[in-house]
TrEMBL record:
Pfam families reported in the protein's UniProt record: Aldedh
SUPFAM superfamilies reported in the protein's UniProt record: ALDH-like
Organism lineage: Eukaryota, Metazoa, Spiralia, Lophotrochozoa, Mollusca
NCBIfam families tied to this protein: PRK13252.1
Naturally occurring in which organism (per UniProt): Patella caerulea (Rayed Mediterranean limpet)
Protein name listed in UniProt: Aldehyde dehydrogenase domain-containing protein
InterPro entries the record matches: Ald_DH/histidinol_DH (IPR016161), Ald_DH_C (IPR016163), Ald_DH_CS_CYS (IPR016160), Ald_DH_CS_GLU (IPR029510), Ald_DH_N (IPR016162), Aldehyde_DH_dom (IPR015590)
Length: 521
């Protein structure tokens, strides 16, 4: 479902479904949040890691409060989770794809039934507005259902050869998959990685980001309730060391990762030792080209979707907004007016459109990019400041007003590097050729967009852009089934589409001789 449609539904949904009483009854309870967060052999467990000092604090982005301490998983925990996944692989990989698909489809149904609780927990972890969290959870149910349906269709081929001989191919699972997620879409990362992996008959050990540990383990419980045998999906919590131990573990056959380019590169390096398969969904600095013949209000909305969802913490964000010079003034005027109307505040409030940054450190990175941009000559035409909401309980959260920078140039740091916050750089151009050339002048290639009414131009630009996902007259929509992943340094492999199943399986070719062996010896 598109964001816009979701926005329209939001008001109705709020009025009819979400009385305050219902909201509190589905919010994560303190007891639930305090439960063990590792999940191994079909149950929540605390890590056995002997070093009790290896722990981290879970902090609510909305309030800055410490919610709990989480102990990191160590080598023993990972050995155990990998071992259990290996044992579970034997039977799970032998079950028919139809039966595997049924489990996934059932899990999707359970997610829909628990969506409000999942969304509220995601808000607690991430600080994103509740309507965005609902949208994410709903999308995850769709993805899991989609792979549940697709499981049966992922088959091999048959090849007729000479003299009655033939060959066939079988799609087999890779084995035990290690997954590592980032903090901006925690439930989505666990779902997008586990569902195609499980559909192909793999088992998985998943490590969420230490900033957002709460919902992956809920997914594990949902899978169990849906009939997934114990040991097929395990969750371990931890920081960098735990991630390193997982990605370098010799019992892992494939790593799938979402996060920053430097970490992705380290994971790929760790995988090289054992020639592990790897999927990397990394960062971006995506371009959005707005031509003067566009429907301008749509272009403004598209630029906002490309920059301001999830506090700007989205890998595919179109942060380099190239606007044709003759419409830049009117574009900025409309953009500022709409951005001013955004509501910054408590992510659990229905009307909030800008929640909290994930933490102080990330907010400071964002503010320092804005400061640097000013020093390099950009003009802050709106936002880019820390806002302390009136609600005193939120005073320790990091709330930033969405920032619009004009007068940007391609050589500015803010225009070259991934900021991972709501900072839109507006650049001007005169010709299509120039815009495309400048858009492609980046080490990243995750996504891009074009707004124009000229269909020929739209498709020509789409063809010329060096990106994995291209939007014509919209931005940042992710319908299930449409592959997502990057060109260049933005990654390897694809998620969310049918092709994804190829990245979680390998082909075995079987040759069948129907005659006597013809041998020259
Ligand atoms: N493009 C994207 O999708 C994302 C980009 N980022 C960018 O990355 C910056 C840093 O944020 P982080 O959360 O620290 O991202 P990160 O990429 O360093 O971490 C992501 C995940 O990898 C794990 N990890 C870290 N180092 C590892 C290693 N050497 N081996 C294995 N696993 C490892 C982390 O524990 C986490 O689960 C942000 O400021 C942002 O700019 C962050 C999240 C997502
Ligand atoms: C699919 N999407 C863009 C919503 C999330 C992908 C991961 C990321 O932003 O880090």
């Amino acid at each position: 479902m598109h964001y816009q449609i979701f926005f329209k539904m939001k008001t109705k949904y709020v009025c009819t479904l979400l009385s305050k009483r219902l909201m509190s009854s589905v919010s994560p309870s303190a007891t639930q949040v305090q439960q063990p967060l590792n999940y191994v052999r079909g149950q929540r467990v605390d890590p056995s890691n002997q070093d009790k000092n290896e722990r981290f604090s879970l902090i609510s982005p909305a309030t800055g409060e410490v919610i709990r301490e989480v102990q990191s998983s160590g080598g023993n925990d990972i050995d155990q989770a990998v071992d259990i996944s290996r044992k579970a692989l034997k039977s799970w990989s032998q079950i028919s794809a139809f039966e595997r698909g049924k489990v996934l489809r059932k899990a999707a149904e359970i997610i829909r039934g628990r969506s409000e609780e999942l969304a509220r927990t995601e808000v607690l972890d991430t600080g994103k507005p509740i309507w965005e969290a609902r949208y994410d959870i709903q999308g995850c149910a769709d993805t899991i259902e989609y792979y549940g349906g697709l499981a049966v269709s992922h088959n091999g081929d048959f090849m007729k050869l000479d003299n009655g001989c033939f060959a066939y191919t079988v799609r087999e699972p890779l084995g035990v998959v290690g997954g590592i997620g980032a903090w901006n879409y925690p439930f989505q990362m666990a779902s997008w990685k586990s569902s195609p992996a499980l559909a192909c008959g793999n088992t998985m050990v998943f490590k969420p980001s230490p900033l957002t540990p709460l919902t992956a383990v809920m997914l594990a419980e949902i899978y169990k309730e849906a009939g997934l045998p114990d040991g097929c999906f395990n969750v371990i919590q931890g920081e960098t060391t735990t991630g390193q131990l997982l990605s370098s573990h010799s019992g892992i056959d494939k790593m799938t990762f979402t996060g920053s380019v430097p970490t992705g590169s380290k994971i790929m390096e760790a995988c090289a030792k054992d020639i592990k398969h790897v999927t990397l969904e990394l960062g971006g600095k995506s371009p959005l080209i707005i031509f003067s013949d566009c429907q301008i209000d749509n272009a403004v909305k598209g630029a906002m979707l490309a920059n301001f969802s999830n506090q700007g913490q989205v890998c595919s964000n179109g942060t380099r907004v190239f606007v044709e010079r003759k419409i830049v003034d009117v574009f900025l005027e409309k953009l500022i007016a709409r951005t001013k109307a955004m509501v910054i505040g408590n992510p659990n409030d229905e009307n909030t459109t800008v929640g909290a940054s994930i933490n102080k450190q990330q907010a400071e990175i964002v503010l320092s990019y804005i400061k640097g941009a000013k020093q390099e000559g950009a003009n802050v035409v709106y936002g880019g400041e820390r806002i302390i909401p009136q609600d005193v309980s939120l005073k320790n959260g990091y709330y930033l007003s969405p920032c619009i920078l004009s007068d940007c140039s391609d050589d500015m740091t803010v225009v070259k590097e991934e900021v991972f916050g709501a900072v839109m750089s507006v650049l001007t151009f005169d010709t299509e050729e120039e815009a495309v050339k400048r858009a492609n002048n980046s080490e990243f290639g995750l996504a891009g967009g074009v707004f124009t009414r000229d269909l020929t131009r739209a498709h020509r630009v789409a063809g010329n852009m060096e990106v994995g996902s291209l939007y014509i007259n919209n931005y940042n929509v992710y319908p299930v089934g449409v592959p997502f992943g990057g060109y260049k340094k933005s990654g390897l492999g694809r998620e969310n589409g049918a092709d994804t199943l190829d990245y979680y399986s390998q082909i075995k070719s079987v040759y069948v001789e129907m005659n006597d062996v013809d041998c020259p010896y």
